[in-house]
Amino acid sequence: MKILVACEYSGIVREAFKKYGHDAWSCDLLPTDIPGQHIQGDVLKILNDGWDMMIAHPPCTHLSVSGARWFVKKAGKFRKDIKLRENALDFVRKLMDAPIPKIAIENPISVIASYIRKSDQTIQPYQFGHKERKAVCLWLKNLPKLKPTTNLYEETMALPPQQRDRIFWMGSHKGHERSRFFTGIADAMAKQWGNQ
Q: What is the chain's Cα-based Rg?
């Protein structure tokens, strides 16, 4: 299949699908971390290029519920922040409405659920072999829910909070690292959705 991994600079999901023989391309405004088939630019300009599937990771800066509290606290910038959120939601709508037969949109718990629609599935990294917690929501079009592969719940909960909730404890200045996707979930996507 010809697969577009939108808003991905890391190359993690792209390489997972490539490993199983798919023609996978990542696209992001940033250059890719892993050399490979990468389009650096605006993903909206290539949505009509005959893709069979798209996995999209829209930036969560103005979408995540964890950041929503700042909309209220920054009184002077409130209107600007609301506009940024509206623009981010509009971008998600464009991705969801893309003329691509199979689509998965990935984001943490976010305002997408209240302004567009509820997610089809919420998964955790510990269900896919990572000893970490971070809710990953999926909005799916013509794709089945992901089935957990290696559940490490008990091992994860036995870890200290700073370790099992590593991403939560990272500072906002580590946005690049915070947005890096989980290889176990990427592999499950490629195995389970690549055979559809």
A: 17
Pairing verdict, β 121-123 and 53-56: unpaired
pLDDT tens digits, one per residue of 55-111 = 999 988 767 665 555 555 554 555 567 788 888 999 999 999 999 999 999 998 888
Residue 194 gets which letter from DSSP? T
- Is the pLDDT at 140 greater than 90? The verdict is yes
Query: Residue 26 in contact with residue 37, Cβ under 8 Å?
Result: yes
Give dist(CA 136, CA 56) in Å, integer.
13
Reading across the β-sheet that carries 23-28, which strands appear in turn? 38-40, 23-28, 2-6, 53-56, 102-107, 136-141, 121-123
Percentage above 70 pLDDT, the chain? 84
- Per CATH, the number for 2-189 is 3.40.50
Report the pLDDT value the prediction gives residue 82, as an integer from 0 to 100: 77
The single-letter code of the amino acid at 112 is I
Q: Which helix (H) or strand (E) holds 56?
A: strand 53-56
For residues 55 and 49, give the distance between their C-alpha atoms in angstroms, rounded to a whole number.
15
pTM above 0.90, yes or no: no
Residue spans per domain, the chain: 2-189
How far apart, in whole angstroms, are the C-alpha atoms of residue 120 and residue 161?
A: 28
